[in-house]
Amino acid sequence: MGYYFVDRILSIERGTAGKGSFRARGVKAVSGGDAFLREVGGGEPGLSPSFLAEAVGQLAAWVAMSETSFRRRPVAGLTAEVRVRGSARAGDQVMLSVEIESLDEDAVHYHGEALLEGVPIVTLSHSLGPMLPLENFEDPREAEGTFRQLLRPDEGEFGTEPPPVHRERPGSTGPLPARSLDHPAIDAILERDADRLLALTCVSRSAPYLTGHFPRDPVLPATLLFDAQVALACELAAAKSGGRTFHVSRLLDLKMRDFVRPGSRLISEVRLRDRGETMVSAQLTGRLGDRVVSSGRVELIPAGAR
Amino acid sequence: MDIESVRPKVSQVICEALGRDVEPLSLDARLIDDLGAESIDYLDILFRLERAFGVKIPRGQITRDARGELSEEEFQQDGVVTAMGLERLRIHLSEVPQERIKPGLKAGDIPTLFTVETFCRLVVRALKSRPSTVDS
What we know:
heterodimer; A: about 300 residues; alpha+beta; Thiol Ester Dehydrase, Chain A; 13-stranded antiparallel β-sheet; 3 helices; about 15% helix; about 40% strand; B: about 140 residues; mainly alpha; Non-ribosomal Peptide Synthetase Peptidyl Carrier Protein, Chain A; two-stranded antiparallel ribbon; globular
């Protein structure tokens, strides 16, 4: 299981919005053999919105690494908003688009989207990744080699984007996993009441999700953690509403404040906040001991409300 | 536009970025030692300040301003702030108690000096340097 969500980079344009700006396009093919597939609708496997956002972020990361000659790379960081309009199922080809607003030795600032049949299904706004020495995380030559493999400019086959396999429901969305204990980043539910839940994540060096993230310094992927917390929030909201299914509408103020390395026991707290007829909001917090290492919010809407 | 006038909104931004209850912060509160900020929080705070005040604050602006006219070599050597650099920091970061700017300070540790007032000053400078609208 590698932690790679960009299958091909189609183009990188420089100076699209002034010095230090870039525009890049890429592809993520969603296969039934993919790691991190979950049930996204009608019982079919697919890639949840969190990982589509990760794919957009990884495209930005490839550009950032390339433009710093593989000396620096963005790691974790923060995103002000991820707006979700759908998810992708096995068989879909997702186009990735990213606009890098600024890039320097300290940080990359970008926004972007994942599109299915030309329709944005996930949109990221105001994302920031701190740039750190790449050699601390992986072999720069291997990273450059992978980049060369991925960079295959559009030779026409993507000029007309092929339709998704599931044409009858293009850009469809569906429930995130109802059973959060199935999630690879949740080991146990420690406490639970109607509005709050505490869950445990033990980070084992042998966890498959650490492969590639990163070879020289394995750390829990922030997206995987947020995906687990969102699954918990969906489950909490569903239980409180008598089994109604909830979808992610927006993720807000996501921030990973520190690395979570193997051997750690991380406690996630998911707390339902505002509750209305059409939207439920939950606060997501990850702690190592008393220290908050991740934070964010999720807005959920009932199935059929999108 | 002065420090006191921007302080409430700067306090709000810092509290929100750090996941704390929003409250007026003391100007001399240290971001790392007193408020528990991590390095990613600095990026977040600058980002939020830009949006809250409608200004542009390039990353690294505080340390660039602190260095002033000094060259990189004059300011630091082998990652340690030089005597000239320390002198410059004492002038630029006048809100920081002088005893905290001492010989042996690593350039990478300069952010540990920052206080709430440091960010208020940054915003005031950014607001003053913002192009003014010309009345027709």
